[in-house]
Amino acid sequence: MNREGSAVRTVSAGSADRVDPINVAFAWSALGGDPALLSHVAVVEREGALAARLPVRSLARACTGACALAAAELAARRAGLSAAPGVRVDDGAVAAAFASERHLRVDGRAAASFAPLSRFWRTADGWVRTHANYPHHRARLLAALGAPEDATEDDVARRLSARGALETEEAVCAAGGLAVALRTAEEWAAHPQGSAAAARPLVERGRLDEAPARVLPPLGGPDASGAPLLPAAGLRVLDLTRVIAGPVATRTLALLGADVLRVDAPRRPELADQHTDTGFGKRSTTLDLAADTGAFEELLASADVVITGYRPGALDRFGLSPEALAERRPGVVVAQLSAWGGYGPWGGRRGFDSLVQAATGIAAAEGSAQAPGALPAQALDHGTGYLLAAAVLRTLTEQSYEGGSRVVRLALARTAAWLTGAAAPAGGGPPGVVGVRETGAPYDGPAPWLSEADSRVGRLRYALPPVAFTGGPTDWTRPPGPWGTDPARWS
Q1: Is the pTM higher than 0.90?
Q2: Spatial distance between the Cα atoms of 17 and 434, rounded to a whole number of angstroms
Q3: Mean pLDDT throughout 197-218?
């Protein structure tokens, strides 16, 4: 028993009660991690956290645990430690963080949620899920439906009730909007995009050139001053991501010490509350990539990592393909995130967590005969975000030995395939010992894992980071500021 009276046990990844492929060991294998390090992971299990029909809690635990282990591995490498620090994954902290946008308060005000036209709708033959949080997506949706700009929910409902779900999906997509027909997991598996996603690795990893090994400045180990181990200290990250998944990844890298500069187009402002929730630890600027090429190239010249979260190929015309970036900045790590993956018939489509849930059978599995459902959090976004951060951290460790510019790619649809059982990560069975598991008190809400801070946007209540290892940081040192108000230069 531990000091709290909780049961403690050491669990092999291959033991009978761990046959579920959604665990830290599988995620770590997908990242190319050393299985011997899995014994450093301790998990506090809490019943009631992220309760759902699908194994969401297992997914969330696996993604954050793998990220924390990647951080601990890099910290040991840079600090010259004889062993990686221990990692602790608490279901309570994970559950709070995976719903961080719901727990955010700005001067006591709850964050804005989905817009009125971002929801499920009945169609003539089923259901369709639309996304219209951004003004330009709302306008394209209404244009595809032949609805006026001031259309109400009732107007949209009436129009959609007379159309087929697949017809709506194609029409809205053709107009540059976002709509996805509800599918079961079986229907998605039979779809060309579903089969393409399931055939890919959970984390795609590649080498772009033979750049020399990365020289990482050494870190001081933990000392009496209490200064935390920051494995990403001194690294510069260009953050070209939006919404949740990509910003969660870069928010995590900022927690771990990276200098993260988010770059957005000046005419595409982020939703204010969304930016606040994912803006901890970062600075935010705007650049027109077509006109401000000099400013961007100056940033790239000393960037260590470039992370993009747009449709595959959408930024290539600005010279932001992995190959083009590596040519101008040898040794760079390029991390790419998309909704559907850069392959298959939907490889160029826009997408969001809620749409991927609808397409891949998740909404059907979590719903009822009367209506589709949803996961208790936008777990595809958050889970993929932590995996993306983990992939960057692992790649930095690998580069310190082997060199080479690198690229990593993740997709929400591939994470969904893991969650639904359509595909497990590549790399065979989960090797080694996962570590110690404690049975903690049942999850009774996020309060123990929330904090408050003043910021330039107001007094904030926010979820604390779930990525934890011995000697590591427990909170961000910089609160978020208003979108796009920082200069386009490194700290």
Answers
A1: yes
A2: 12
A3: 93
Contacts with 398 (C-beta within 8 Å, 6 or more apart), sequence order = 32, 406
Q: Quickly list DSSP for 452-479.
A: EEEETTEEEEEEPP---BTT--SS-SS-
User: Which residues neighbour 338 within 8 Å (Cβ) at sequence distance 6 or greater?
Assistant: 309, 310, 311, 312, 351, 409, 410, 411, 412
Looking at residue 172, what is its pLDDT? Answer: 96
Q: Which of 12, 64, 42, 55 is nearest to 467 (CA)?
A: 64
Mean pLDDT for 53-64 is 96
Q: For residue 448, how many other CB atoms are within 10 A of its CB?
A: 13
Measured distance CA(126)–CA(452) in Å, rounded? 44
Beta bridge partners of 488: none
Residue 214 pLDDT > 50: yes
What confidence tens digit (pLDDT) does each residue in 98-119 have?
Answer: 999 999 999 999 998 889 999 9
Contact criterion met (CB below 8 Å) for 463 and 449: yes
Helix axes 379-402, 56-79, angle to 10 degrees: 30
* Phi–psi pair at 30, nearest 5 degrees: -65, -30
Is there a contact between 231 and 71 (Cβ–Cβ < 8 Å)? Answer: yes
Residue with tokens 């489509």: 349
pLDDT band per the 50, 70, 90 thresholds, residue 480:
very high
- Residue 226: predicted pLDDT: 75
| Mean pLDDT, residues 387-415 taken together | 97
For the chain, helix (H) and strand (E) counts, in that order, are 17, 18
| pLDDT for position 425 | 54
Nearest to 416 by CA among 367, 378, 467: 378
The residues that are catalytic are 381
Quote the CA–CA distance of 26 and 73 in Å, as a whole number.
Answer: 17
110 by DSSP, 3-state: which? strand
385 CB-near residues (< 8 Å, 6+ apart): 244, 245, 246, 247, 248, 249, 252, 337
